């Protein structure tokens, strides 16, 4: 499908890949469909997040979440899995140029309950991340004041022993922060005011000329961080919104997947190879015999989609269960990538240099064990190509409370990270 932004299908779509490596137990991992192009190693470094740092955010204190190509957050209800994904989505919004108020519509909820106001009645929170790519590991730390008014009070961008950018609130009466970034020439540091409601890292490419080696290092670190944040796509399929016919639009899948039928109609016309792979995944993950997917353009421009059956007119989306709808939507996201998603990665960067990271809260909600296994296998194989990454949270524990067998363990290529209210620096399983 010709992408509107990001990578789309290539000539590799017609290639026949090798079999998927077996799991740790020696049995072949479940496979919804062969992924095109996975035989060629892709060594192009693409900016991506490797850590999410919640120093003081809601119920998190000194929490560090390591992120792999496919990462699932596990733990008991109330342990902070959804909160961590919300923090990641807020960083993505800031990286896209949103203001603090847009990224944090309820900033008071992000302030830890135990935080005590200072003499000026100020309270806030601290979050950050680490991204890797051509510039090496780059760390972003952000301190936000939520009360009595929302504003950035400190930001630091650093890596390789160098502080590329540092900001601080010097005068509370001014709506600016004093910024200093690493440079060269007559002065080793350049200072200037920046707005206190925008991420300073996103503004650096507009303020640094890039004439010296040090300035180019600052630009590389800032651009890598911004690109990694802009490539995050929060996806929360809402089955109730997917059942009615979808009105015509731009053909880009929204975060709630309400226009799923419209996107399927576009994919059927523009990307037959990946559409065929999606149909193969649907045959394995949906109940009953399925021949494929069909779409119909209704009078007025709306689109209706249905599962095609060996007999009868098929099953429209309006009659599918919540689990089948969520499975279909997530498989579509993982197969097609940003070419059909309502996401705005950096259009000036070639798609081959971008890696989309899908944020999926309650990843397994309404799904049975086989559907979860099929989607995780698909995510792992797509991640191996370098274009897709997944950060999700499980709605059910990965291990039963009594420790008996039967938990979701041992998925090849999937990292499980336990999150809990009593954990500091959450360990990786």
SSE topology:
Layout: E1 48-57, E2 60-66, E3 70-74, H1 81-95, H2 100-103, E4 123-132, E5 138-147, E6 151-159, E7 162-168, E8 176-182, E9 189-195, H3 200-207, H4 213-230, E10 232-234, H5 239-242, H6 260-270, H7 272-285, E11 292-297, E12 303-308, E13 315-316, H8 322-336, E14 356-360, H9 369-385, E15 388-393, E16 415-418
Parallel strand pairs: 3-15, 3-16, 10-14, 14-15
Antiparallel strand pairs: 1-2, 1-4, 4-5, 5-6, 6-7, 7-8, 8-9, 11-12, 12-13
Helix pairs in contact: 1-4, 3-4, 7-8, 8-9
What can you tell me about this protein's structure?
The protein contains 9 helices and 16 strands. By secondary structure, the protein is an alpha+beta fold. The strands form 3 sheets. An 8-stranded antiparallel sheet has the order 2-1-4-5-6-7-8-9, covered by helices on one side. It has a 5-stranded parallel sheet with strand order 10-14-15-3-16. The protein has a 3-stranded antiparallel sheet with strand order 11-12-13. Helix 3 packs across helix 4 and helix 7 (272-285) packs antiparallel against helix 8. The radius of gyration is 23 Å and the shape is elongated.
How would you summarize this macromolecular structure in one to three sentences?
This protein has 429 residues and is an alpha+beta fold. The protein is built from nine helices and 16 strands.
- Main sheet properties: 8 strands, antiparallel
Number of DSSP strand runs: 16
Overall geometry: elongated
Strand content range = 15-25%
Q: Provide a count of the helices.
A: 9
Spatial strand arrangement across the major sheet: 2-1-4-5-6-7-8-9
Structural class: alpha+beta
Q: How much helix, percentage-wise, in residues?
A: 10-25%
- Mean pLDDT reading: 83
Could you tell me how far the N terminus lies from the C terminus, measured between alpha carbons in angstroms? Answer: 38 Å
N-to-C SSE string, H for helix and E for strand: EEEHHEEEEEEHHEHHHEEEHEHEE
C-alpha-based Rg, rounded: 23 Å
> What ranges have pLDDT less than 50 throughout 5 or more consecutive residues?
1-42, 346-350, 400-408, 421-429
